């Protein structure tokens, strides 16, 4: 970690927000800034600095992918409406070269998707080697919205936690590092973000009347999120629980989680597959 970043994180983000069974979702302070000791101005400055670091690491991942490395990183974003998933993509992933990003958003399954196993559409969207994958919602909807709304019988969704763990274990073995981020916004902050969507012409498109229905189911969602964290935060694919009332914080936290994941790959620039001196000579003579 750069000196500046180290100074502002009294606990590294990957430790500060890692899902902890002793800290239930119901007690989470959504306007907190776990691990971070600076203020908003510090956070915004650091965001640009660390975004550049993220960009350079991602370029290395991409370069290695081009040279045949099968490894990839997959950011999974889960959160209620207005938690800031779209902004996370736009601003955090916005720091990196779009060529190296495999982005997928998962909405209500299409008729075709419904005919398949719930992991079918997920499998088709996995990042290729060298790519930074981003899931805006994910297979976890199949134990969240599906559980809250009884979209399939209980005996089916209860089995999905184990299925997901097995699926993710295989993904990790195949070379994908999962960075799973559960984004939490408080009910008050959600209300004000939804109100803004109703007050601004440029935000109507983000508003969906069903967001208010979902909001009223918050206790059921909280229970479903808690079960998800309890059952699917594993040592090979842990969950990170990120408070999102302060967007500047959630964005620097996720930037650090991605930097951490990429640094652990210990990437170097791919070596030349040609004779450098011979090529320099050829070029000079050309
Ligand atoms: P948005 O992310 O605002 O575009 O909304 C997407 C909607 O699709 C959300 O209401 C999700 O809960 C819903 N959704 C995503 N995956 C599923 C699923 N597997 N089953 C049912 N609804 C889903
Ligand atoms: Mg929405």
TrEMBL record:
Q: Name one GO biological process term.
A: polyphosphate metabolic process
Which Pfam families does its entry note? PPK2 (PF03976)
Keyword Acetylation found:
no
Which InterPro entries does the annotation name? P-loop_NTPase (IPR027417), PPK2-rel_1 (IPR022300), PPK2-related (IPR022488)
The UniProt GO MF terms for this protein read: phosphotransferase activity, phosphate group as acceptor
Give the keywords, sorted. Answer: Transferase
Positions of transmembrane segments: none
Q: Which residues form the Polyphosphate kinase-2-related domain?
A: 52-264
Would the keyword Coiled coil be found if you checked this record's keyword annotation?
A: no
- NCBIfam families given for it? PPK2_rel_1
What's the protein called, per UniProt? Polyphosphate:nucleotide phosphotransferase, PPK2 family
Question: What high-level taxonomic lineage is stated for the organism?
Answer: Bacteria, Bacillati, Actinomycetota, Actinomycetes, Mycobacteriales
